[in-house]
Amino acid sequence: MKKALIDGRASEELIKNLEKLNIKAIKTPKCKELYRAICSHVDILSYKVDNTNVIVAPNIYDFIREELSKNEISPIKGRTLLKSNYPYDIAYNVARVGKYAIHNFKYTDKLVLEHLKKEEVELINVKQGYSKCSICVVNEKAVITSDRGIANTLKDYDIDLLLISLGHIKLDGLDHGFIGGCTGNINNKQLLFTGTLSNHPDENRILNFLKKHGIEPMFLSEDNLIDLGTIFIFG
Description:
three-stranded mixed sheet, alpha/beta
């Protein structure tokens, strides 16, 4: 059975629909140092190393270590203590796309950097520190984003990119959320969405892009997309 690390505030509908896909949900605790909109976001609180290992911010490490371990996920304590104000809340928000990692590397957690360098990953530096929030990883060579700065940088790399409209995604406490934050990769053929694309102006473009790359979209709710800070799947 696969495991999903998900925002602790995720709805029961999302949790039940994960279970229908034979995926057990593990909810993140609230990080009191962060502002409400992102205080339980998985991609803010942790960095997924691989299908077994995850680097976790020291803020919540002791609160989630046991739960992760008993579900066959190995937690690694990060070195950067997250703080409330940007850019001191982005240390783990790195987007890994195949042989590349995308982030504002001035603020990346040093342990995350060590893992990336060990794997000989090419680092793509961008100004946008909320990199994983902003990037939906479709597969190892394709992404979706609404961030024009990221899109402009990635045009020089062998990454197929779909640039979509900004907004049209819910994020409590802020004007809108981001496409990376409402998705999660089950495997290299299936991509989870926290809600429906039916009210998104780029629905057809997104679906066609996924079809182009042989990706099946899986919708966890009939409500509009909600940014939960990515869903990390393990196992």
